[in-house]
Amino acid sequence: MTTGTIDASQRRAARVAGIALLFATAVVVFGEFYVSGNLVVRGDAAQTARNVLAHETLFRITIACNVIYVASILVLTTALYVILQPVHRGLAMIAALCRFVFALMWGLTALNMLGALRFLGDANYLAAFSADQLQTLARVHIAANFDAYYVGLPFFGLASTICSWLWFKSRYVPRALAAFGVVASAWCVACGFVFIVFPHFNKIVNDWWFDTPMALFELAISFWLLFRGLRPLGPTGPAIDRVA
């Protein structure tokens, strides 16, 4: 590849990244907020268990959505690496690895939910527990998804911070948008780490504000990549660091 140019593989990867991110967002919103959000009752393990058993197929759809989300994130990770590795290969690789860790945490949520279903099943070995105990164990497994997400969130934020910096440096997208991404993503990283150490931090800063600015940036960048693509670099375009 010629330094300072955008090749066909990067342009294709930009379209793939835009589609993957929008698709992943749609899948996770549907699974977590529309389906799972209507089944899980905060503070009531028994009612949650009844809801899950009454709508097991819907609950399993949420699990499938989580698996599809993981696959979408892996596609997105690969596409972003193809786009950004000419800017700085080392940083692009670190960002890809961080996003991969985040994807693993979402894979763990699918396992947690399958574990909850197992506790609500009819296997003979479950007779050693009372119904209340099984409902509580199932609810604990579902609640563990919250922990998995917030362990993965700093990695997601770090990946987005690095990618935003590479967007800014490359001028592939508007620098104002990339700068917003750096700030929003770094804020997410900071909130994620603080929340792990101080679990009541969300009483000071609502946990919706941990990642919402970064999510808005990611949506904006996905629309840009899908509909506008990478900005062409003219003769006076920015120099790109080629790492051998």
Explained architecture:
The chain has 244 residues and is mainly alpha-helical. 76% of the residues lie in helices and 0% in strands. Helix 1 packs antiparallel against helix 7 (208-227) and helix 4 packs antiparallel against helix 5. It is elongated and about 65 Å long. It starts with 7 loop residues before the first helix and ends in a 17-residue tail after the last helix. Residues 234-244 have low confidence and may be disordered.
Which structural traits does this protein have?
244 residues, mainly alpha, 7 helices, 0% strand, elongated, disordered C terminus
Beta strand %:
under 5%
| Unreliable residue runs | 234-244
Largest sheet: none
Structural class: mainly alpha
Shape summary: elongated
Total E-strand runs: 0
State the helix count.
7
Helix content: over 70%
N→C terminal distance: 12 Å
- Mean pLDDT value: 91
User: What's the SSE pattern?
Assistant: HHHHHHH
Gyration radius (Cα, Å) is 21 Å
Quick summary:
By secondary structure, the protein is mainly alpha-helical.
Task: Provide the fold topology.
Blueprint: H1 8-39, H2 45-54, H3 56-84, H4 89-119, H5 131-170, H6 175-197, H7 208-227
Helix pairs in contact: 1-3, 1-7, 2-5, 3-4, 4-5, 5-6, 6-7
